[in-house]
Amino acid sequence: MKKIIVIGTGGHAKSCIDVIEQENKYKIIGFIEKNKTKNKNFLGYPILGTDRVLEKFKGKCNNLFIGIGQIKDSSIRSKKFKKLTSMGFNFPVIISPKSYVSNKAKIGNGTIIMHKAVVNIDSKIGKNCIINSRCLVEHEVTVGKNCHISTGSILNGKVQIGNDTFVGSGTIVKEGVSIGNHCIIGMGKIIKKNIKDKKILKK
């Protein structure tokens, strides 16, 4: 198996471990934490240090994955993805074997498709996205880069989601509706009309 390093040591990183292990394509060699601590391991995997140590892994392990979650702000994930890509690191697509992804869907680098998610035919998911557990991404949906489509949410046919947008757990978006860039859609919403950029809909 190819080697991979995961960035982050929070709750989302824990979920990523399970998906990466079960996909069985990449061997996790360690984790990168935000700030230097005395911790030496994370759920049985070594903590390699902070971002500063990544340079020495180039050539030894060129695959990285961002295990940092995203709700209110996509900037941490997007900045790290951009910076580390420019350094020459590769961000593979991670797909749970317990999910369904159409072979006619397109998934961008650095995106994770988590357990029980469905991505149907002719859908396009951008780079560095989280398609979380039990999401339904229906036919011809477009999701921009740096998005988090949270647990159990439903994007019906031909929905369009802009860049850097969060869609909360259990939210249902009507077919053909567009949601703009940098939006935050709270948990359990039913979206029937288009939403402009930078809109925040609270829980």
How would you describe the overall organization of this protein?
The protein is of the alpha/beta class and 203 residues long. The chain folds into two domains: 2-86, Rossmann fold, CATH 3.40.50.20; 93-203, UDP N-Acetylglucosamine Acyltransferase, domain 1 (3 Solenoid). It is 12% helix and 29% strand. The chain contains two helices and 23 strands. The chain has a seven-stranded parallel β-sheet, with helices on one face. The longest helix is centred in the first third of the chain and has 13 residues, at 11-23. It is globular and about 50 Å long.
- How many helices does DSSP assign? 2
Please, what is the average pLDDT?
96
Low-confidence stretches: none
In the CATH scheme, the class of the largest domain would be Mainly Beta
Overall body shape: globular
Q: Which structural class is indicated by helix and strand composition?
A: alpha/beta
Sheet with the most strands: spatial strand order: 6-9-12-15-18-21-23
- Intertermini distance: 42 Å
Q: From the 3D coordinates, which CATH architecture of the largest domain would you assign? A: 3 Solenoid
Radius of gyration: 17 Å
- According to CATH, the fold-level topology of the largest domain is UDP N-Acetylglucosamine Acyltransferase, domain 1
Series of secondary-structure elements, N-terminal to C-terminal? EHEEEEHEEEEEEEEEEEEEEEEEE
Total individual domains: 2
Largest beta sheet, briefly? Answer: 7 strands, parallel
